Amino acid sequence: MDIADSARLRFRLMGPADAQALWQLDQDPEVMQFINSGQPNSMKDIEQLFLPRMTAFTNSEKGWGLWQVSDKATEQYLGWVLVRPMDFFSDSPKFNDVELGWRFFKAAWGKGYATEAATAIKAVIAEQNCVHYLSASAIAENIGSIKVMEKIGMTLVQKYIHKDPLGDFNAVLYQMSVK
Hints:
This protein has five helices and seven strands; from the N terminus they run βαααβββαβαββ.
């Protein structure tokens, strides 16, 4: 599956060869603030944890994986959009409910790139017959991500406590029906 260029952006499915790009994005504590309390990931974390998880859910035919987002004019790497079934790493993944997530360099914040990228990607993923819902979750204080969820047409369905090895935190789940 391919994601066509949007007005300003180009998309490419990422793979293990993108370890350096993934690591680079995770070095800004502000980018990581709502992911792991602002701690940058090490290259060891990327290679031993992140890449195996990414490889497990990547399916190019279905469009699952991390889609690198680049500026179409300059080819500058801006960030990525995640696409995978909700609860993928559980005993009962929801293959008809696809999760969208995003992570962008701070320099790309506030310019509409995440919204533009998520809109382009959701349009293609929503065309699949087996996909009935698109969902996204975030820490409740992550107003930037919540605004993207709302701008792409998702609505709040649940506030909950997310259990995490780094500690429990307030989270929100947004969703939209595509069928």
